[in-house]
Amino acid sequence: MQTVLFHNTIFGPIHSRRLGISLGVNLMPNDGKVCSFDCLYCEAGFNAQGHGKDGIPSRESVKRQLKKKLETMKAAGDGLDVITFSGNGEPTLHPHFAEVVHDVIMLRDRYYPEAKVSVLSNSTMAGKKSVADALKLVDNNILKLDSAIATTLTALNRPTSPNVIPQGIIADLKQFTGQCIVQTMMLRGDYDGHHIDNTTDAEVEALIQAYREIAPREVMLYSIDRKTPAENLVKIEHDELQAIGDRIAKATGIPIQVN
């Protein structure tokens, strides 16, 4: 079974194809996965691997470890483009997510004021006020919407709650008008007897309407880049992805980043 990618609370820096030199902050267990989605393509594996034994790191531990890492990097003269909340699950599920965001911004300002703070979120907690308020403070508030059609979102993202539907996510993301970045994974393939494809005309038109409603600062389109827990998924090649991006940009006027 494919298992978690990150075995530390602070990891990297790594080179992100979308964000540059990135230092990661993993607010989930180092030996397990906690997420409100169970995406077929998740690089950290399926939720079935369990929560592990280490537990979610405390706010104090995150702050202490990040401070130590930034001090070490600064002393070595290392560059840093971004501090990114990512890791083994959904960062906004951390019970003190908002407080941790404040700590990270404070440490960023002290050691690398030119660096950005980014959050990669699946959007499921964006309707919670404390989470939304914290997301409004970061430089890159990157929120997932892989499909605006309920059956596709359910099959592809496999939310752990039946109450998660595209219409609810879209409504929550509208509060970030002009400030959020919407990230959409494009792929096709087969899983558990079902064919999944969010690149069809109907899917793209539904996404176009959703993007118009959300009015994000930017849309990031990307496809599979690493091994996925579901094996029969197909990467969308750059030319096709670019064509979809061009279609969305023409229809919405929103800047589209294709990776």
Structural features, described:
The strands form 2 sheets. The protein has an 8-stranded mixed sheet. It has a 3-stranded antiparallel sheet with strand order 8-7-10, with helices on one face. The chain has a single domain (10-258), classed as Alpha-Beta Barrel (TIM Barrel), CATH 3.20.20.70. The chain has helices spanning 59-76, 97-111, 129-135, 150-157, 166-173, 201-214, 238-252, and strands at residues 10-16, 20-26, 82-86, 116-121, 140-144, 180-185, 187-191, 194-197, 218-222, 233-235, 256-258. It is an alpha/beta fold and 259 residues long.
Short description:
This protein is of the alpha/beta class and 259 residues long. The protein has helices at 59-76, 97-111, 129-135, 150-157, 166-173, 201-214, 238-252, and strands spanning 10-16, 20-26, 82-86, 116-121, 140-144, 180-185, 187-191, 194-197, 218-222, 233-235, 256-258. The chain has a single domain (10-258), classed as Aldolase class I (TIM Barrel).
Task: Please give the count of helices.
Answer: 7
Q: Calculate the terminal CA-CA distance, rounded to whole Å.
A: 27 Å
Strand count, sense and barrel status of the largest sheet are:
8 strands, mixed
How large, in whole angstroms, is the Cα Rg? Answer: 18 Å
